[in-house]
């Protein structure tokens, strides 16, 4: 690739983004694709420290605007320190969550002003958007049941939220899908992992112009 390609993975809690990425990574590397995988919030030292503050289960008193601003701060540091250099080096960068998470969680979920979130995202990223966003869709109850059944997964502050917030988040993602259907591709995450990986691979390879 002459320039980098930015992919973000999005979805409600328990959609299985991480499992798909772990399975897909060796396939990409076999194709000779230089891949950087990273996550939000986190990805770099400062970002990981902010992540600890955001997701600490004891921080239930955190205000919604505080939460949003912490995500935005982590996003900016992560971008300039890790993501942009990788894109400039021509790598495929796959991010576990990016700008759409703020709209879905803090906008639709918390009820904060969407226009303000869009402005903050623009400010933090200098207008950068993914070349492709893979949205892994799953019914909220099924996603939360997966989390409850996975004893190895960290339990964070968002997992303690009520069902209503998670339903609003999913509606937020579906709204974004309607608005930006050329960038965001919906993948049914309720199917077995192997099938979800195969669909993801097909979409990604097609967008990048790679042969399967």
UniProtKB/TrEMBL annotation:
Protein keywords: ATP-binding, Kinase, Nucleotide biosynthesis, Nucleotide-binding, Transferase
Source species: Streptococcus mitis 13/39
InterPro entries, per the entry: P-loop_NTPase, Thymidylate_kin-like_dom, Thymidylate_kin_CS, Thymidylate_kinase
UniProt domain Thymidylate kinase-like: residue ranges: 9-198
A GO-annotated cellular component: cytosol
Catalysed reaction equations from the record: dTMP + ATP = dTDP + ADP
Enzyme Commission code: 2.7.4.9
Keyword ATP-binding among UniProt keywords: yes
GO biological process, any: dTTP biosynthetic process
Gene Ontology molecular-function annotations: ATP binding; dTMP kinase activity
EC category name: transferase
List of residues binding ATP: 11-18
Alphabetical list of SUPFAM superfamilies matching this protein: P-loop containing nucleoside triphosphate hydrolases
Reported function: Phosphorylation of dTMP to form dTDP in both de novo and salvage pathways of dTTP synthesis.
Top-level taxonomy: Bacteria, Bacillati, Bacillota, Bacilli, Lactobacillales
Family: Belongs to the thymidylate kinase family.
Keyword Nucleus: no
Protein name: Thymidylate kinase
């Amino acid at each position: 690739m002459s320039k980098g390609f930015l992919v973000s993975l999005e979805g409600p809690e328990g959609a299985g983004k991480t499992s798909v990425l772990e399975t897909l990574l060796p396939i990409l590397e076999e194709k000779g694709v230089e891949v950087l995988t990273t996550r939000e919030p986190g990805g770099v030292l400062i970002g990981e420290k902010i992540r600890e503050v955001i997701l600490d289960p004891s921080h239930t008193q955190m205000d919604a605007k505080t939460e949003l601003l912490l995500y935005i701060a982590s996003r900016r540091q992560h971008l300039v320190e890790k993501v942009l250099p990788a894109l400039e080096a021509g790598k495929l960068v796959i991010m576990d969550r990016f700008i759409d998470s703020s709209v879905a969680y803090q906008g639709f979920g918390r009820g904060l002003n969407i226009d303000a979130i869009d402005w903050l995202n623009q400010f933090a990223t200098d207008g950068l958007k993914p070349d492709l966003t893979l949205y892994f869709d799953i019914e909220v109850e099924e996603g939360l049941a997966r989390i409850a059944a996975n004893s190895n997964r960290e339990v964070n502050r968002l997992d303690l939220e009520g069902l209503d917030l998670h339903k609003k988040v999913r509606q937020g993602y579906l709204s974004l899908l309607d608005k930006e259907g050329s960038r965001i591709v919906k993948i049914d995450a309720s199917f077995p992992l192997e099938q979800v990986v195969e669909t993801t691979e097909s979409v990604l390879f097609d967008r990048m112009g790679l042969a399967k």
